[in-house]
Amino acid sequence: MTLQPIDPRDRLIVALDLPDVDAAEAMIARLGDSVTFYKIGYQLGYAGGLPLVRKLADAGKKVFADLKMHDIGNTVARGVESVAKLGATFLTVHAYPQTMQAAANASKGSGLKILAVTVLTSYDNEDLKAAGYQLGVSDLVAARAQQAQALGIDGLVCSPEEAANLRKYIKPEMCLVTPGVRPAGSDVGDQKRIMTPARAIAEGSDYLVVGRPVMEAADPKAAAEAIVAEITQALANK
Ligand SMILES: O=c1ccn([C@@H]2O[C@H](COP(=O)(O)O)[C@@H](O)[C@H]2O)c(=O)[nH]1
């Protein structure tokens, strides 16, 4: 299978983690052509931001609906069908077998790609233990990645720290979407498994999700352009 090359600009997914639609639209205008791929998650989605998925898609942008679905299979399937009608490119579900199976079946033929969230990038081994898991981060990510692949999921959300290992055994067409990306010197915040944009690309990430380092920058457009430049350079060095 020949994989389509991904435009370096499309590899940066900017998380529109903002309180309302007005703030999001002002940010989108400010970012202009520097950003081609946006993510809408809980904060904006629950503040009336889901119609923005269609608006952005109609304006030629790609949209990642980061809704992290997890429910009984029938509810997940109907939810996936609704999101597919919005024109999103990616939708997240948690990496539980029933949930992934329902989402993979419901998205077939729609053009919507399902990403399974393996282990949140704000978790380390201690957090997993506190949540009742016996496996550590790298083993749980690997186990969930294998299940996701077997169930026909299109891609994985993980930290760039896991990308190189996952690349050894997942199909090349399965994409790796990695939050937990921090340009050198920027605040880590609540993220625990992080890498710089250049390192994330070198390790095998396909798409980098970045929120606060762009949203909270004095000049968000310059911040986004600097990350795209770092991605472009890292790809050239590969
Ligand atoms: O494991 C995960 C899954 C999703 N996210 C989301 O990505 C962005 C990251 O934002 P930053 O401000 O760059 O930390 C955010 O919307 C998360 O909900 C994640 O971080 N980790």
Automatic annotation (TrEMBL):
| Residue ranges constituting the Orotidine 5'-phosphate decarboxylase domain according to the UniProt record | 11-227
Q: One matching Pfam family, short form?
A: OMPdecase
An annotated GO BP: 'de novo' UMP biosynthetic process
Q: In which pathway does it act?
A: Pyrimidine metabolism; UMP biosynthesis via de novo pathway; UMP from orotate: step 2/2
User: What positions does UniProt annotate as the active site of this protein?
Assistant: 66 (for ompdecase activity), 68 (proton donor), 68 (for ompdecase activity), 71 (for ompdecase activity)
- Reactions catalysed according to its record: orotidine 5'-phosphate + H(+) = UMP + CO2
Keywords in UniProt for this one?
Decarboxylase, Lyase, Pyrimidine biosynthesis
Positions of substrate binding: 17, 39, 66-75, 121, 182, 191, 211-212
Q: What is its EC number?
A: 4.1.1.23
Q: Does the keyword Acetylation apply?
A: no
From the Swiss-Prot or TrEMBL record, what is one GO molecular function term? orotidine-5'-phosphate decarboxylase activity
- Record keyword Lyase present: yes
* Recorded superkingdom: Bacteria
Annotated GO CC locations: cytosol
Q: How does it assemble?
A: Homodimer.
Family of the protein in this entry: Belongs to the OMP decarboxylase family. Type 1 subfamily.
Described function: Catalyzes the decarboxylation of orotidine 5'-monophosphate (OMP) to uridine 5'-monophosphate (UMP).
Q: What is this protein called?
A: Orotidine 5'-phosphate decarboxylase
Q: Which organism is it from?
A: Tardiphaga robiniae
